[in-house]
Amino acid sequence: MKVRQLEIENFRGVCLGKVVFADNTLLVGGNNVGKSTVCEALDLVLGPERTSRRPVVDEHDFHRSTYVDADKTAIPIVIRAVVVDLPDEARRRFGGHLRRWNDTDRAFVDELDDGAEHADDEGVTWALPVSFRARYDAVEDDFEADTFFEHPLPELDELDDEEAASLGEGRDRFTRAHKRLCGFVYLRALRTGSRALGLQRGSLLDTVLRLSEEGSAEMWMETLRQMRDLDPAIGAIPGLESLLTQIRERAGGFVRLAGNDDATAFFASDLTREHLREVVRLFVATGPSDHAVPFTRQGTGTVNLLVFALLTMIADLKERQSVIFAMEEPEIALPPHTQRRVARFVKKEMGQAIVTSHSPYVIEQFEPDEIVMLSHGSRGVVAGSPIDPAGIKLKSYRSQRRQFSEAILSRGVLVVEGETEASIIPVAAAVLEKSDAGYVHPDPAGVTIFTANGDGDVPRWAPILRALGKVPFGMVDKQTTPYTGGNAVSLKSFEEFWESPVEGIEELIVSQLPTAVLRRFMDKAVQLPDFPAHQAKYDSWVTDADLPEIALKTLEARKGDAYGYAALLIEGCQSRDDLPEFLVAALERINEVLTPAATPTDAHGQPVDDEAADGDE
């Protein structure tokens, strides 16, 4: 099974949202765009155990914490999901609740023009529409929630008043047993440690026990019996045995006790099976020690790998391809090679993997058409659908996977022609940030620096980055020959494009920096172990007139990020006035384009725009 579409109304930071999923899906977007909210919404509608927890929802799960309107009418949370690729068993079980779905147009056939005539067209399949609904119940002063089949919808005029007023408005319930056929598993970002490896209901260990049919009911009964029937009994300890005798003698004068020595006893505990679920812990011994300790005492990376091991067990027990697996930020506390392994495993072995991540090592495992960019617009409107790969050359994407992975997480991308430019721009931005309180450094602003393979390679990345939904900027040295043909066309995709007045970045920064900055740089550079003394002769007696030429020779001899000379030079700038004007103009323009306008407020100073007030990670 696979989730193809999710619609959200009035849930957390989402007033209204629609997300379309690929067969495997990487959900990406900035902080507070709604990635976790989407995963939580999937869990509410498809998670077998989610609606059995109490409370299922609370005030803060409603958008802007608003669950009734001015007339005291309940404002519901509604989450709708469309599930496709149903196995034969699910088709038989859900037969009366299925609808024909056009997977190309992403719509139900009966909602399209002349849909009935195209019910058997290529790309049309059976789909299961289901929903989660929650609302405030004023009579009970509590929240009610449940899941339902969305097809067929009941005829309102055929319902009695009680049915029409119910949470599902006459819809058939989508029960826990039904959901288990969907095989949905949700692994939250390391908020899961205890739930994953404990035995609470819905945990991964509990899921393994349930799927393996190892008789968990008998297990709990036998465990409790053995704790009661310890031999020797707790009460057989001499000190306690004497105390029990005294209690029987003293209490017997006031309370009618059973007439034998068992009238009073000590047992190991009065635990129930629910108590056991909470207190039983997995113990693990990891090398080089052979002493087992509770898993919570292990390192975070070890805990994550234990969770991963359980996921492989669940995949086997669920016959792998039947699992819809949602996972948040698998990279936490895992080294890069393990991140890649986890991503590859869930993509290959699960029926559908839905992953959120900020790690390039995870992101690079997904192809462009598997990436869903989430956007959080004004007033809590969220949207997301797979990237259209038509504008992305797969060879180009794969050759620069790591840089693309970083770019995917950004709002804007500045394409430069070489490592020197890439190394000095963040340093120049840091100086500018200290000088201007209104300026935002590229890092918090969400701007990535993308290094092309020379000036001739810069233009072609603009349309590709546009296709990824990013705002691209470009910067090159002075061109002796203007761009023509396809490169000239590609340049138009840049939001802004800057061409230096000189042919080299080293010449640019030396020509636009004050003498005092050059002097401070050379005084430090000459002391470095790799200073190119054979190419740049410098001492404190060098005149100001000769200083630019010597600084330029130094930079040209030590080009690139590996040496760090150009960055060291820019670090010597103490304010905006010291920085090269060419760089300042570009950085300030990028900041202007990407800095959002101030959020409007009402008469009480409250934000009018929900996007600024209600984002969820």
UniProtKB/TrEMBL annotation:
The keyword Nuclease applies. Residues 25-364 form the ATPase AAA-type core domain. InterPro entries: ATPase_AAA_core, Bact_Antivir_Def_Nuclease, P-loop_NTPase, TOPRIM_OLD. Residues 596-617 are annotated as: Disordered. The keyword Acetylation does not apply. One of its GO terms (molecular function) is endonuclease activity. Keywords: Endonuclease, Hydrolase, Nuclease. It holds the Pfam family OLD-like_TOPRIM. SUPFAM superfamilies: P-loop containing nucleoside triphosphate hydrolases. Residues 409-477 form the OLD protein-like TOPRIM domain. Residues 608-617 have a biased composition (Acidic residues). This is ATP-dependent endonuclease of OLD family. It comes from Microlunatus panaciterrae.
